[in-house]
């Protein structure tokens, strides 16, 4: 007699998919930290949005930790986007950016 409830196959698939997508977001975020570029940041943001979308498919009790993780990924994405914007401004027009910061 098995006392532990079994997850439905759909739940198992979405859990694996969520894990994969969250992993992509983490790895892309790590790549962005190593070599900041818009491409890595775009992968991070897209995977973060997908992570939140997949987490919202789960039942209310099961998705708390997944939504919390997606929120942490989203916070990273917001900070990284702001930093990437500053880096792009520095690359494109250093004298104007320097004047803005020094003034």
Please give a structural write-up.
The termini are far apart. The mean pLDDT is 89. It contains 4 helices and no strands. The chain has helices at 9-34, 38-55, 64-92, 94-102. With 103 residues, the protein is mostly helical. Helix content is 80%, strand content 0%.
Number of helices: 4
| Helix fraction by DSSP (H/I, runs of at least 4) | over 70%
Global shape: elongated
- The amount of beta strand, in percent, is under 5%
Oligomeric state of the chains? single chain
pLDDT averaged residue by residue: 89
Q: What is the succession of H and E elements?
A: HHHH
What's the end-to-end separation, in Å?
Answer: 74 Å
Number of strands: 0
Q: How many whole angstroms does the radius of gyration measure?
A: 19 Å
Low-confidence stretches: none
Kindly name the structural category: mainly alpha
Q: Describe the main β-sheet briefly.
A: none
Brief sketch in words of this structure:
The chain is an all-alpha fold and 103 residues long.
Task: Give the key terms.
single chain
Topology:
Layout: H1 9-34, H2 38-55, H3 64-92, H4 94-102
